[in-house]
Amino acid sequence: MKENSIRRAVREGRAALGTGLKEFASRGIPWIIEAAGFDYCAIDHEHGAFDMETIANLASWFQATNVTAIVRIHKSFAHLIPGILDQGIMGIQVSEVETAQEACAIVRLAKYPPIGNRGISGQGPHTGYKSYGARHATEYAPWANENIIICPSIESLEGLENVEEIAAVEGIDMIAYGHSDLSAQLGVHLDLEHPKFKAAVQRIAAACNAHGKLARGSAETEAQIEEYWQLGCRVLNLPGNDVSTYLDGMKVRAGRAHARLKSIGVPTP
After folding, report:
1. Rounded Cα distance, 249 and 256, in Å
2. Measuring CA to CA, how many Å separate 262 from each of 234, 243, 256?
3. Of 44, 97, 153, 164, most Cβ neighbours within 10 A?
4. What is the reported pTM?
5. What sign does the dihedral 128-131-137-139 (CA atoms) show?
6. What does each C-alpha distance from 72 to 2, 125, 135, 176, 223 come to in angstroms?
């Protein structure tokens, strides 16, 4: 089984760079993301329309690359975590976690004993179709507990107030935040340079650093990439997803064509 690419990047002293999928789910997508230089990809179950079969397909296609696939779900769908992980997904990001109790409940579903109580499924995508049998507890479970990253996302004032307790929970590997929802809760929606938002990010990163957990920063600008790295965010989610990337690229191409046509007197939109 392969080491989680987020763990690998951090172990090598690099920043683990991530992007997201919300719309596209073809077999070539993981290869394109790898060729672009990303370490991980978050498949958006919360705001996307991916069902379990689509997630399973993506998990298998990502396994053919060096890019780790994680799935983003809302906490109200936490019951899906075991089934998602059994498809070979290497991490779960859970939105709107607000208390240590919620974090503990997620760990129970996602980690094998002795950390959690994840149900044991035999050979399948998650084991590379190998059967561990009686060796599950001594060989597969320790690997899975180390390599499958569990990441609550702070998106509310209550979650921010309790972030230190959430970071202290055994089995939590990384903490993220929803920059849109959290900034809205702070009354500064998408003003990511506002002192209130900056202080929130600093608090989340400090909680992670204090408890030996990975901090994931959502770097919307090049300056924030440097800023969040200096705060201790070794995992960086870069702006946009498949929709915005595709749309931006198409706009550039259409814009060039319109400009050239306009230059020779052809009407443009």
Report:
1. 11
2. 46, 28, 10
3. 97
4. 0.95
5. negative
6. 21, 19, 30, 11, 26
